[in-house]
Amino acid sequence: MNEFRGQTLSWDFKDGLIELALHRQPLNEISSLTVEELEKFIAAAEPISREAHALILYSTLKSGFCAGADLRELYHWIEQYGQAEVTKHTREYLQRIHSVMNTLDALPLTTIAAVHGVTFGGGFELALTCDLIVADKWARFCFPELRLGLIPGFGGIPRLKRDLGNAVVRDLLLTGRSFNTTKAQQIGLVSHVVGEGEALRAARSMAAQVAKFDRNTAAEAKRFIKPALLDELQKEIDIFCELIARPAVQAGLKKFVESTAAQPYLP
Amino acid sequence: MPTAEKTLDEILDLAAAHFKVPRERLSPDDDFFKALGIDSLQTLDLLTKLEHHFRVELPDYELQGVTDFRTLAGKIQARL
Lengths: 267, 80
What we know:
The structure holds 2 protein chains of 2 kinds. By secondary structure, chain A is α/β, with parallel strands linked by helices. Chain A is built from 10 helices and 11 strands. Chain A has a single domain, classed as 2-enoyl-CoA Hydratase, Chain A, domain 1 (Alpha-Beta Complex), CATH 3.90.226. In chain A, the strands form 2 sheets. A 7-stranded mixed beta sheet of chain A has the order 1-2-3-4-6-8-11, sandwiched between helices. In chain A, strands 5-7-9-10 form a 4-stranded mixed beta sheet. In chain A, helix 1 links the parallel strand 3 and strand 4. In chain B, helix 1 (4-18) packs across helix 4 (69-77). The A-B interface holds A 27, 63, 117-118, 137-138, 140, 142, 175-180, 182-183, 261-264, 266-267 and B 39-41, 43-45, 47-49, 51-52, 57, 59-61.
């Protein structure tokens, strides 16, 4: 399948380039439907990636790249399954999304996240699976999970630790502060900062450059410099599942769900 | 380094221009959420624009509880 249009995302494959676009209102919150459609993408991408040289991941929404996990859905699971069962259900869900993220992380082609606006939590984690991040000058990054008594659960901590210094990871994770593209480029997270609305264009230009190289050599180079982190990723799932059953987390999620703020997940 | 008054003026100018509010309707002690009619996503946008304009980093936790332009200007002035 060379193209797909789902409810949360779409993709197309043309001239060696795969473009995966997120478009779930209001801010691409990652729900179980998103995961289901990402799984469809992964199933299609594995054969396509033998012919492709690059993948670009971006958002079509003006508000930003992605606000992270759909916390309302997470809260409804707690209500639906009860405290005992929610851990089991969460573990199954995280195993599915980790499987998607791990495949994206290791695709044998060059992957580029073109981000703008809000790139928070699970959205930040999704961008971290990519080999390169191109950011619009107004993009903003954050791991806000500790505010809810959780840790990032989609592989963010091991991947950030792999790609940046541990002190940087502690700063971003333990303070939960958001930061701009200037900071993101200073710490080595973002490869290129471009003008407003220019991230996708710049990513396409980068993909055209990547296409000039032998794709098998590029895939070998990627395998060499981007190790899998399976033990740490599994540990992250274990910690997240231990935390989700705590009453304080459930109270935090309840407060979030009942908030009347327009974007309650933001600082 | 600009004076505190100049920093405050620049914040008011930037906020008025970015959110398309007449400059004369904004005062230093206004609650900027109300005066600009902005939600938390737009507040984040304002924070990013201010960081860029003044070339400073403003951690979210330093701005918790800050609602008026004058206090915001003080936080920025302390980082210039």
